[in-house]
Amino acid sequence: MAKAKHLDIDTLIDNPKTKVVVCCGSGGVGKTTTSAALALRAAERGRTTVVLTIDPARRLAQSLGLEELGNVPKRVEIAGFEPAGELWAMMLDMRRTFDDMIIAHSEPGRADELLASPFYQTVSTSFSGTQEYMAMEKLGQLVADGEWDLIIVDTPPSRSALDFLDAPNRLSSVLDSRLIKLLTSPARASGWGVRKAFTAGLAMATKAISTVIGGQLLTDASAFMQAFNSTAGGFKERATKTAELLRSPGTSFLVVAAPEPDALREASYFVERLSDESMPLQGLVANRTHPVLADLPATKALAAAESLDKDGNGPLAAAVLRLHADRLALDQREQRLLARFTRAHPGVPVVGVPALPSDVSDIAGLRVIGERLSGNGTAR
Amino acid sequence: MTTPLGDSGWTKELRRARLHFVTGKGGTGKTTVAASLGLALASGGRRVLLVEVEGRQGIAQLFDTEPMPYGERHLVSAPDGGELCALHIDAEAALLEYFEMFYNLGFAGRTLRRMGAIEFATTLAPGLRDVLLTGKIKECVSRRESDGRHTYDHVVVDSPPTGRVVKFLDVTRALSDITKSGPIRGQAEGVVKLLHSPETAVHLVTLLEEMPIRETLEAIDELAKAKLRPGAVLINRVRPPRLPSRSVSAAADGRVNTSRVRSGLEAAGLELAPDVLDGLVAETVEHAIRIAAERAAMEQLGEANQPRIEIPDITEGVDVASLYEIADLLVEKGVR
Ligand SMILES: Nc1ncnc2c1ncn2[C@@H]1O[C@H](COP(=O)(O)OP(=O)(O)OP(=O)(O)O)[C@@H](O)[C@H]1O
Ligand SMILES: Nc1ncnc2c1ncn2[C@@H]1O[C@H](COP(=O)(O)OP(=O)(O)O)[C@@H](O)[C@H]1O
Ligand SMILES: [Mg+2]
Ligand SMILES: [Mg+2]
Predict the structure, then answer these.
(1) Per-residue model confidence as pLDDT tens digits over A164-196
(2) What residues line ligand 1, using a CB cutoff of 6 Å?
(3) How many CB atoms neighbour CB B150 within 10 A?
(4) ipTM surpassing 0.90, yes or no?
């Protein structure tokens, strides 16, 4: 089977040149858990670390003291937790980050008007892509703070790992002011690469759109965009600027995946994309693996279980043998899937993180995950 | 394979449904279960339409076929002479279709689309997208052939995840996103009526894990509040409990009777090194912790009092043949 290079987490987080680590991956694979565990480990190894979590599971948030939304980092202070460095944590408040961005970038007096726009209510709460956009915005702010040795960034729970890279652009192109202008006054279309012959048809089409969604919505949108662009330089430019941050030296990406076909496929797309964009991929975290803990072949275990069943004694031993055979089958499947990933991406270092038998929701659990991430504390 | 504990079979009430939405937390198996349910409902000579609304080509991927265009087509045959058809509804295409019908846009329609204006309109008014999708679904459910019979005996929708499904189905609310008059609005009343009728059921796919269970219970609540009908809870990826149930809680606490295991193994002719035995015990403890957590999850699910169906985990991974296996199992449990 293809053998992957080992991903050395401790070297990464100990390196003073590592400033930002972004944990990407598709939904539910353990990005938030991994981010928190990495940050905890880095803090315990002496770095002043902040973790930006997004939508953490409730119990994890509680144990990090993140229940109150502050939208600024808070120091994690728990009895008995005395890291050599510092651990700070925050949970992204999408709406508040957006509000702050509007306030910071608009002329005095203008902000209230912008915030009150009905269009803004929609954009800031129910547009897809807003969360990704605001995660980048917040990351930009944390970097600008200059207070952190290391910033660990979790990414929003989306179905595709690529969304984190694409969504901010998608959002800004939907908000592209030219399109809104066009829809509110199609007469200007002529200046926008659309041939004259279409202009009449376009007028008709815009009319159709406004009959469906209402002219008011378009007017609101247009007013909002004009006001916003005149002050903040537009969504697109901002998105481009924060995206540059991801390309700067000191930023590393980790892709997190469960050893399942879908998650690994997403991870593959992501790896290819990063390499296309020459962004630095550090490696793959294969989270929630199930390595076997006992060296006993399945055939032998099952044969023994069967003979026990036949004699009707040793039900406990028979059960132990069967669950071991189940685990072997699962482990083999996981290894096969990971080997397939490595064949496609031989240069990508991998570390497997064996699953804890129950959810990870406190400092102790995160510490164990941290140990497993660094390849310690497990059988394999 | 499955424990009877959670299984209640397909109820009489569920048999009245012709329109089946299949929702669940992301990654729990919505697409897999929707396809299997479609096959089950089609078996025995019926015709079923499997609908996809999220633009992800999940059906094509699952059945290993070419990406689907916006249009109904034969997908596969179902057991005993049935047919499963598929439709990938593209909201933007549906909106354009609409415009063309009512406004005769010609070139302009395509130009608008190319410029992203259609995407823009559906993004700006998210409700519009939902109204278009459910409108098309209703059309498929109600369509009849010249002999008066329904074109499709059942329609199964691979739906948005639990977090968004109620919003998706709450057409009345979605309508507030669009103007007070116009053709789209006119059609919506019929959709509302269908979605709230006994002809419609919203099934929930879950795993026996804390978060999917919590989302399932929340969705059941929300659905009931919106006067929509929660259908069956489909418990997916159930793995067989191996330990005798009386040993589970002790083992989950780390108390495994090691000498009993050793003597059992010896009786079967296995003399194992101490570290191998320790490994087996550690695996047993992990297994027991999972089983105990699954039991708790199952109990929690009991609060909801919805019909439940268990679907086994397929360790080697799902392929088209497994969909037929799951379908057979669903038929055995009374799905029709
Ligand atoms: N009973 C099962 N046994 C084994 N694997 C399964 C089973 N059901 C689903 N899976 C696997 O789980 C993964 C997720 O399933 P699926 O794509 O159906 O979920 P989904 O809910 O539609 O996901 P999404 O939210 O991404 O749309 C797939 O790899 C699928 O093969
Ligand atoms: N290695 C692991 N062992 C056991 N449980 C895990 C592990 N990694 C994640 N989990 C659990 O899986 C669930 C999803 O993890 P989470 O980090 O929230 O995923 P994501 O942020 O990618 O959506 C959580 O309940 C978490 O406790
Ligand atoms: Mg998360
Ligand atoms: Mg799906």
Answers:
(1) 888 777 777 766 656 666 666 655 555 555 555
(2) A 159, 260-262; B 24, 26-32, 58, 161, 236-237, 311, 313-314, 317-318
(3) 16
(4) no
